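Researcher: Here's the sequence for the chain we discussed earlier.
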Amino acid sequence: MTGFRATAIRVVLACLAVSAVIGVSRSTSLEATAEWVVQALLGASIGLAVARWLTPAAWFHNRLWAAALLIASAVTLPLATVVLACLVVLHHAALSRSLVVQVLPAVFGSSLMMTALAFLVRRAPTQTYASPAPHSRPPKFLDRLPPRLAGAEIYAVEAEDHYLRVHTSLGQDLILMRLGDAIGELQGVEGAQTHRSWWVAKSAVTNAERADGRATLTLKDGAEAPVSRGFAKQLRAAGWF
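Model: Thanks. This is the structure I predict for it:
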């Protein structure tokens, strides 16, 4: 399992482990510990959804603090609602303004702490700068190519809605797949993600141009792959341009 799925499993397991430890240390009640675990699972699920669908990919490279604040803020309101409901329904607390004021900062702080933990255990972005080892198996992604592209050299993979446009030495075609999963299956090909919607093979680059602070890579088939600022520093350090 690669990409986002592997990261999600790590994050959920870490959040559940921490919440279980906190629940046990703060209470001898099994019900109270179960509440902590359920709330942690809910918070982790919301946080992963926000990270996957709402947070700009570049933020995970050059604005990690902004990504953390966005995720924690998005988790706070729904999770605080659940916490208040548990306090009122299960523990018979009186719903009041003071209770809300007490719960919201605590939930935000916990969400921020869990988000920081998630960043520590998340899977590092897949970068395939290294050449494949001798006698290694061909990348799994090659098996997904249609018959007419069999044996072709892969130049780039470009995300288009729910599809990927594969640029090769034998032409282009569309594959129903996520870019993150494709990058994981391209491990072993010397290349890297250059943009939130592009992965490029280093051997396919014929020219690199920079204008207005942005770089563009020209490929063997004439396609131009953008380089976002979030990936530019890593690519520059690796000698791409």
